[in-house]
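idk why but the lab printer keeps eating my pages so im just putting this in chat instead. protein + iron/sulfur cluster:
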Amino acid sequence: MTEPVSPLRLPPQATDAGQRMQQYPPPETWDDWVEWDQRQWPRKVPRHYMLVPTVCFNCESACGLLGWVDKETFQVRKFEGNPAHPGSRGRNCAKGPATLNQVNDPDRILYPLKRAGGRGEGRWVRVSWEEVLQDIGGRIRRALQEGRHNEVMYHVGRPGHDGLMEWILPAWGVDSHNSHTNICSAGARAGYAFWMGFDRPSPDHAAANVILLISSHLETGHYFNPHAQRIVEGQMAGAKLIVFDTRLSNTASRADTWIAPWPGSEAAILLAIANHLISTNRYDRDFVRRWVNWEEYLRLVHPDSPVTFESFETALKSLYAKYSFEFAARESGVEARLLRSIAEDVANCGGKLAAHNWRSAAAGNLGGWQVARCLFLLSVLTGSIGVEGGTSANAWDKWVPRPHRLAPHVKRWNELTWPGEYPLSYFEMSFLLPHFLKEGRGKLDVYFSRVYNPMWTNPDGFTWLEVLRDESKIGLHVALTPTWSETAWWADYVLPMGHGSERHDLMSQETHAGQWIAFRQPVRRVALERIGKKVHRTYEANPGQVWEETEFWVDLSWEIDPDGSLGIRQYFESPYRPGERITMDEYFGWMFENSVPGLPEAAAKEGLTPLAYMRRNGAFEIRAGAEAEFERPLSPEEVAAADVDEKTGILYTRAPASPPKNIVPTPAPVATGLGRPIGVMIDGVPQFGFRTPSRKLEFYSTTLAEFGWPELAIPEYIRSHVHPDLVDRAANEFVLLSTYRLPTLIHTRSANAKWLVEISHSNPTWMHTSDAARLGLATGDLLRVATEIGYFVDRVWVTEGIRPGVIACSHHLGRWRLAEGEGTSRMASALVELKESGGRWDLRQRKGVGPYKSSDPDTERIWWTDAGVHQNLTFPVQPDPVSGSHCWHQKVKVTRAEPEDRYGDVHVDTRESHEVFKRWLALTRPPKGGWRRPHWMLRPFRPDAEAYRSAPSPRAGVSGRSQ
Ligand code: SF4
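predcted complex ->
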């Protein structure tokens, strides 16, 4: 029994409870911080902790965490915020501290597993990492030697690292990256990218006068906690918060002005606001004159008009005159007077408009990308670009270091991810993969799914299931995952990868006006190394044999090319010990020494190496405050080495430019026959400009015009596929909003976090009181929601907090498993029965959630029974023909449940889903001859320029086309 210890024997900080409540442990005490052990209360028993910084992995925000490692057991006891992290500033949402649940999850995968029976039978054997590497490495080696590069695919859900796969995959010589972007942010990315060449905004909420959000951004959006704290800061300093959200979200409840427009009408409202600014001459005339490509617009669209700013202003007035407040009110259902008052607020923002749309309307609607484009028009008109309180481009506020060695651009193009029909997509057409495989466009020999659960997260999950179980389409499926998922169940290998405190990664996000970099660390490994223990591989320090991807990819690359004859191994050799395998200290240490501005100097001031600095602090602030790259004057040397195109004012290099240090993709040379564009003349001054073909903000996108969409080349309103005219409300048709997040959940991995699941475990369908009365429904009644390809059965929640004619259901719930004690976490999933007959699938819940015995006594205290309903299974794929974004909103028919219906039932016909896929595919237009994609546009893992040429005709011979 431990005796109570006198406070006098403790360091001073542990004796002052008041101080502890108000402050973080000071960094100089992180090696040995002492607190009373709460489990020993009321006795005062001290426990010694080593505090190791890391980065949360539970959403994209990359907030800082401190892992509290018990110095007696070397187990992590808790996670709190890292005050040294410039993005999160010591704060976290509920999901950050819940990392502890994921680490201690009794159902987690602890060892590498190999399938023992047929796919999906759920029989597994434990294998060693050596066996895994040999088998997979040998298979990839054969594929590469036989020229089947496009049969190797890496498909990621939550990347959680910057720059890693840009190091790995090009070294293998494959164009095989696949992402989840097109079920997430593709619409918004496209809207921003056509304007400025960058596909994300970085609003400076804290210093704004007006904050305009098209999403439930403050509570769950992109970048949730770092943005939320700055939005509130902005409000406290007097900023007005305007929120467009069809649903009364927590964000809407904080707004000064909340409107609930009909889904898909957002762009009409934004253009009415733009029209107000233009028609009342309350826009930043000088900014627009200097930085918008109005001359190009006039030359191409109004060739008979004089190329003067005045004639552009005349054109602008007439272009948007049709977007009156009354028109927008008809489209949106929001009163014109309210829209006018929002427009007045925007007009009075004083050049400080922080505006953001990420998923929400941009991800919900056909043409959703124009919502982001129209929103950015307001930022441009108010001159709020790159200034304090305005909106910047993401790359100005983000830093991605280059590793010691990068392979050249690959000379291949993968049509399974970048098909000819979608030359402007942002990015890979990932959610169409199963349809492409069904059509015979190719096959996969080795398919890595990584922290990704497409069968559950994506639309049309049963089509995924049909493909994942078919070994003729996917030869080997390797699931790299920290937890079980519906998708991992159908894998051949299930390989446990670490949670946020069990891995190395670099992260930098545009969370505010500034620039920072953070270091995710395996806290137990770092703690053991601090006391002098040698750890060769991270799985030696993690629970079981949970590994991390960075080391895994290095070892796998050596296995693919053991003797270096394929030219792959060289990229994974130490920069310090030629010919030897690179270590994690060397990989990250080299970047900290050579590729993070200011870090070596800051570390030297503290007498540390850059690596030691990052291991101790976990983050480094590169720059504070807004910085607008486009306004940077070119140096006399740059100007001397450039030619100016007299017509456009663009400056091109004469000599090949040296590669940029930052590996945020940079537009490659436009096909001009000149060098690389480096700037543009503005009022006679050579300045850096934007990363667009014109080097200016592109009000008129020549790219859109040339690639078949001339009528959409300027910010325009596109009628959504759920426009009110297409929804027959008298026939009980509704629009289903299916995209909203819950603040406490993550897509897949929160199922393994008991605190989070206890808080959120139901996803009833929201319905307005008037609609419920019409249908005779009361809260708790079962209803059947029918989509084009099937239906799901859910309970209704009757509320005033949603627009009549619209229903909503969160996509965060409805987890399921096929076996009693295995697969998806039992605290969050229903045990289901799955039946199939010729493409007709029926899923029925056999048992909900309940208490069970495990290594965690809390699982016997589970009091909830609900696992929610899996609505995404019933959604067909609906790819926007321009951005490639899945258009999530569904037109549905709602009825009372049938007598045979049960809560959670799902019925789907995948033959119908394939027909819907073909119908949406037919909306695409043939790309510009000879180009698979405009070369200037962002593309992750940009191949060699030659690979962009010679796209096959997308409509010719789709069937049977092979790679
Ligand atoms: S917002 Fe929450 S989940 Fe996202 S990184 Fe921060 S703490 Fe983690």
